[in-house]
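FAQ
Q: What does a multi-component entry look like?
A: The components come first, one per line:
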Amino acid sequence: MHEMQKYINLTYELARADFKLKYYGSFTGLLWSFLKPFFMLLILYGVFFHILKVNIPYYPWFLLLGIIVWNFFADTTKESMQSISAKAHILRNVNIPPVIAVLSTFLHLLWTFVITLVVFGILLGIFGVPFSGNIFLVLFLLMLLVLVTLGISLFTAPLFTRFRDFGHLWDILLQMFFWILPITYSHTLVPQSYRVWYLANPLTRIIIYLRDSILYHNTPDVSALLYTTFLSFTLFLIGVFFFMRQQKMLIEHL
Amino acid sequence: MKKVIDIHALTKLYKIPHEKRTTLFETAVGYMKRQLSYESFYALQDISFSIQSGEIIGLIGKNGSGKTTLLKILGGVLHPTSGSCAIQGVVAPFLSLGVGFHHELTAEENLYLYGAILGLSRKEIKEKMPAILAFAEVERFKDMKLKHFSAGMTGRLAFALMTQTNPDILLIDEIFAVGDKDFTPKSLSLLQKYRDEGKTVIVASHSLDLIAQYADRVLLLENGKIKMLGTPKEVIVHYQSS
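Then the predicted structure of the entire assembly, as C-alpha cells:
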C-alpha cells in the first residue's frame, strides 16, 4: 500500500475502534450522547426562557442548534488534546506521524456530530419547523465549522502533550467561549461598539449564519461569507502550522 | 546476499532533565530561573555493524544495555543523535506485543486495528483472517473480547498477524516469553522460513537457548556499546562467563 493510503486507512481504523469502544454493545452509550445536549437544552431553556424571558422566535431550536455546534467544538478540542497521550503506546513503538492520533479522534467525534445533526433534522421535521434554507449553504458552513474545530484541535493537542496543566486552562477558556459565543442569546444584544470584534470570531459567525439559514430563512451576504471563510481558513492554517512545528518533539514528551 | 542494514557510528544520547517540566507553570518558573541541567545518558554509543539479507540476528545483553533503543532506531521510532542508520526495504516493527490491541474489542476487530497499525488494509486482513486465526490457534475465540484472552493467546495473535505483513526486515523484542512449548518452535521455524526467503530477522531476547539454536549471528550489547558480535556459540559463552 502506498504510504499515504496506509495512513488514511490507519486513521479510519483507529476512529472506528474509538467509536465502537465508546458505544460498544450498549444502547446507553449512544443514548447519553443525546441525553447530554437534551438536558443542557432543558436547563438553559428554563433559565433563559422562563426566568430571563428572552424573546426569540423558535427559541428551543435556536438554543438546540447552538448547543449541538458547541458540544462538537468543546468535545472535539478536549478529546483531541488527549489523543496523543491516549495513543502513546502506539506512537512510541511504531513509526507513525502523531497527527494520525489527532485526526482519528477528530474523525470519530465528527461521526457522532453527523448523527446528532441528522437527529436534529428529523426533530425539525417532526415538530414542523419549516426548513427553507439552502442546503448547500448549510453544508458549506458546517465544513467551515469542521475546519475551525480541527485547526483549534491541532493547537490544543501539542500544548497538552507538552504541558499537562494546559487541560485546566482549556477548561476555563471553554467556559469563557461558551458565554462569548451567541449560544444562549442573540448576537444583536452585543453593543454596537464591540460588534466588529465580536464578529471577528469565525465560530460566532458560523453559529449565526447556520441559524439564519436553517431557522429564519435569511441568507448571509456574500462578503460576510467570504470573510467567515477567510477567518476559518486562517485559524485552520495556524493550527496546521503550529502542529507541524511541534510534531517532531511530541514523541519525546510522551 | 546484499547489505540491508548498515549502521555507522550510531549514538543515541538521552538528555534527562533533572527536573522535568511538564506543566505551563513549571516552564514559566524555569524560564525565569534560566537553568537547565541535564543528565546525559548514552543509550547507544558509537555502534557500527551491518547485516546481510537472509540472516537471523540475535540481540542479547542485560536490561538497559540498549537493545530496545537499537530496535526502535531501526524501526524509525527514535532518531539517532549522531551517526547513520541506512536501511533497505520495509521494516516491520514488532517492538512490544500487540501494541494497539484493545481489551474491549474482539479478536477480529483487534486484528483490523492492529493490522492497520502495521500497514495492512481491511480487505487484506479479511483475506488473511482464517490463516491468522489458525496460526494463532484461536479460531474458536474470534468473536471473544480480548480481555478474556490469556497473555499467551494475545501474544500468538499478535505474532500471527505480524507474519502476514510480509516485510523485508522483522524486528522482534522478547516474544518468546509468551509462547508455550508448542507455539515457540512454530514461530521460530517460521522465522527460519523467512530467512530462507532472504528476509532479515532481528530478535532481542533473554532466552539464550533459543538464540543459540536459531540465530546466525549474535550481537552482545553492554552499556550501549557493542561488546561482541559473532557466532552464537562464542558470544553466548562470553556473555555467560562475564
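Q: Is there any commentary attached?
A: Sometimes. For this entry: The radius of gyration of chain B is 20 Å.
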